[in-house]
Amino acid sequence: MFASDIFRVFCFFDDGKLVILLSGFQKKTQKTPAKEIEKAVRLMNEYYKEKKEKYL
């Protein structure tokens, strides 16, 4: 097996201006592991929850 220098980073735009980087990992296959997707979704939800609590 050959080493890969390919990385995938999960991110999203907040209010269309701010780029929020959530997580990243080194790609080893074509398919994105479900646990990496779940982690990114969890982090995004935590971001919005904390943002909402901050401005209440």
What does this structure look like?
Strand 1 (7-14) and strand 2 form a beta hairpin. This protein is α+β, with helices and mostly antiparallel strands. A two-stranded antiparallel ribbon has the order 1-2. The protein contains one helix and two strands; from the N terminus they run ββα.
Per DSSP E runs of 2 or more residues, the count of β-strands stands at 2
In DSSP terms (H or I, runs of 4 or more residues), the helix count works out at 1
- Note the run of SSEs as H and E: EEH
Largest sheet: 2 strands, antiparallel
Q: What's the average pLDDT? A: 91
Strand order of the largest sheet: 1-2
Distance between the termini: 51 Å
Tell me the structural class: alpha+beta
* Rg calculated over all Cα atoms: 14 Å
* Approximate strand percentage: 25-35%
List low-confidence stretches.
none
Indicate the topology:
Elements (H helix, E strand, L loop, with lengths): L6 E8 L3 E9 L7 H21 L2
Antiparallel strand pairs: 1-2
Offer a quick outline of the entry:
It is built from 1 helix and 2 strands. The longest helix has 21 residues, at 34-54.
Features:
alpha+beta, 38% helix, two-stranded antiparallel ribbon
